[in-house]
Amino acid sequence: MNKIILIILSIICVKNSYTQDLLILANSNYEKEEYEKSITLYDSLLSLGYNNYELYYNLGNCYYKKREWANAIWHYEKSLKIKKDERIIQNIVLTKLMIIDKIESIPQLFYKRWWINIYSLFSTKSWQIISISCIWIYFLLIMLSSFININFPIFNKSILLIAFLSAIFAYSSFYNTILQKEGIMFSPSTVVYSAPTDNSTNLFSLHPGTKIKIIDRIGDWTNLKLSNGNSGWVKHTTFREL
Length: 242
What we know:
By secondary structure, the chain is an alpha+beta fold.
């Protein structure tokens, strides 16, 4: 058994060393402006399971330098799903200036902005940890009060309320980062139809780099919605899902 453990640990160490070497080489190529080589190496790291926001962010930068706006936005958005970072948001805004479609979002109601700002403060995992920690604290206080005959009713209720709210924020974060499917348009020019058929009405056209929300799927068709409220149907092959 000990030999098996040693072999597994050795394999993990070798893999970690290999991925670090690839990362260093990829970053070195980026500094030399050899972006194609960097992209190949970063993609190799992804295939090895080395999946973090910095890697997608670096790939986004490579594609930005190559003026491949759709690929840049896709990788920046992928990075943003893993971690909220002001650098990523700024780069997305900057890259969107380069694409054809200028989609203006519908202004959100104040309470929706307030809600989004709160659950965006932490990741889904962080909210889960806060919620579970508060529940444990609550039960520990209950046990403690039974031993020392001192009650903390207000404090207990506050802890329970924080646990409840944290659980709700965790779900909101999970829904918007995982359950809510989104994509980036990649086809040179895509006609958006009123129904999932080529014989339906042409509503408008979309171009590479535009972000969409995926509402529904029927066969080879996807029902999308834009941030300005417009919606319609396109083929699956016209976009890349995040």
